[in-house]
Amino acid sequence: MISLQFLLTAIVVVLAPGTGVVYTLATALGQGRQASVWAALGCTVGIVPHLLAAVLGLAAVLHTSALLFQMVKFAGVAYLLWLAWQALKSGGALSIDADRAPVPRFAVARRGALINILNPKLSIFFLALLPPFLSGNAATATAEMVLLGAIFMAFTFVIFVGYGIFAATARDAILSSERAMRWLNRSFAAIFAALGLRLALERA
């Protein structure tokens, strides 16, 4: 069940730059190492509803219900566009600014959680990813899916924290350059906007 193939697949999927990675990097550069850990925690917690949906079969319902899928999807699109604005806006929640006030840890984690919660493709992803690695025993299928999902979440947290710590090491140099901060704020805004557009084009 917990095969080398599953572990490698999970690591590769988590390492691939996505919305959660971008959010963690932006948080690390804008608010430091400790905040990036909370961002990683939030992104990890945001996986839980999708894992439960896959285990309970609700992901299949989401996949077959066009209305429900569209509702969650466009809520996610709106949220990503809001994050883009917060990166671009002076003093915004994601802007990189040497004079910004610290952001409460819970707020950092909450934003990370919402990024994943409002991504309907994640439930369908778990529904496709986990079953091939199950033992085939119907009596233990639920427990096996929960275990595999928990391993995936652990990888997510550890790897995202790694991304955050790496980015935080460059924070002092970036905060000393107005040009670098301006460039990064625009870049993160463009990335979040592009991710929102990509999500808008997704189909169930």
Descriptive notes:
The structure is a single chain. This protein is mainly α. It has one domain (18-200). It has eleven helices and no strands. It has helices at residues 4-15, 19-31, 33-45, 48-56, 58-64, 66-88, 105-117, 121-129, 141-168, 171-175, 178-200. The longest helix has 28 residues, at 141-168. The radius of gyration is 18 Å and the shape is globular. The model has no long low-confidence stretch (mean pLDDT 89).
Any chance you could write out the topology, listing elements then pairs?
Layout: H1 4-15, H2 19-31, H3 33-45, H4 48-56, H5 58-64, H6 66-88, H7 105-117, H8 121-129, H9 141-168, H10 171-175, H11 178-200
Helix pairs in contact: 1-9, 2-3, 2-7, 2-9, 3-7, 3-9, 4-8, 4-9, 5-8, 6-11
Order of helices and strands: HHHHHHHHHHH
* Beta strands, count: 0
Give the structural class: mainly alpha
**What is the helix tally?**
11
Distance between the termini: 28 Å
Shape: globular
* Mean pLDDT score: 89
Based on CA atoms alone, the radius of gyration comes out at: 18 Å
> What portion of residues belong to β-strands?
under 5%
Helix content: over 70%
